[in-house]
Amino acid sequence: MSSYTLDGKETTNRAGDATTKGKTRWEGVALVTDLTRSMETPRGNFDMKSREVRSLSEDGRTMTVRMEFDTPRGKQAMTVTYDKVAD
């Protein structure tokens, strides 16, 4: 589990051999998190930078999370959508 503040202050989360430092802030109606994950691997240590942008549809029923990663193997992007289930 990781936790972040929403005011742009840096937070640090640890999981196994990885340390993640992140800053989360509001950009208009989107919640933006910039992360740097430092990992220790058998092939050496490396950092991976990423950005997550969360936005909510106007009707409040769909959340979209756009993730972009700068990895040792190049840039990657992924988009995930979550739909609210009827009550």
Average predicted local confidence, pLDDT: 90
User: Could you say which overall geometry the principal axes of the C-alpha atoms support?
Assistant: globular
User: Spans of 5+ residues with little confidence (pLDDT < 50)?
Assistant: none
Tell me the number of helical segments per DSSP (H or I, 4 or more residues long).
0
Oligomeric category: single chain
Number of strands: 6
Proportion of β residues? over 45%
- The order of strands across the largest sheet is 1-2-3-4-5-6
- Radius of gyration over all CA atoms, rounded: 15 Å
| Largest sheet: number of strands, sense, barrel closure | 6 strands, antiparallel
Cα(first) to Cα(last) distance is 27 Å
Please give the share of residues in helix. under 10%
Number of domains: 1
What is the string of SSEs from the N terminus onward? Answer: EEEEEE
Structural class: mainly beta
Name some characteristics of this structure:
87 residues; mainly beta; 6-stranded antiparallel sheet; globular
Please sum up the structure shown.
The chain is an all-beta fold. Helix content is 0%, strand content 70%.
How are the elements arranged and paired?
Layout: E1 10-15, E2 18-27, E3 30-41, E4 44-56, E5 62-71, E6 74-83
Describe the structure.
By secondary structure, this protein is an all-beta fold. It has one domain (10-83). It has no helices and 6 strands. The chain has strands at residues 10-15, 18-27, 30-41, 44-56, 62-71, 74-83. The protein has a 6-stranded antiparallel sheet, with no helix packed on it. Strand 1 and strand 2 form a beta hairpin. It is globular. The mean pLDDT is 90.
